[in-house]
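Sample entry copied in:
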Amino acid sequence: MQDEESLMRRAQRRDPEAFTQLYEAYFDKIYRYITIRIGNEMEAEDMTQQVFLKALRSIPSFRWRGISPSAWLFRIAHNQVVDYLRRKAKRVTVPIDKLPPSVSDDNPQLMAEQRQDIEQIALASQQLTQAQREVISLRFAGELSVAEVSKVMGRSQGAVKALQHSAIVALRRVLSVTEP
């Protein structure tokens, strides 16, 4: 925790190395979270860049309150996603249901199987409520702790745990119906 606080203080003093460390530590997690939430890789890449631009602009006003930088960054990402979904609701678009593989390109069969699994989970997650999808995205794609998800979503840790449990139960139910 002290290392994170030190890193944030250095970033607030406009230390480029400190902000680079934040960027490198959280870019992939933020990108996966946004991709799962909106289902569009290109838009997710642009939005992830916007998250870090907003973070860079607002880092001087960041106040250390014992929360990790990831919770702060995911809150910015959450707000970006909400804004995007509001704008998207106002226009007609065709979603792209491709999610990025997280395995190396060395094994095409493994990549294909993983992409199929991800597509199956993405399809099944459409049966979840918006809050359930968000908690699953933050916990598993964003790799946040329950405490961090609690701060991002503005809910108690107990509520996050309950939401996660109900989402996993619902996903299991949907996936067991779709399996051969």
About this structure: Confidence is low (pLDDT under 50) at residues 92-103. Residues 2-178 form a domain with the Rna Polymerase Sigma Factor; Chain: A fold (CATH 1.10.1740.10). The chain has one domain: 2-178.
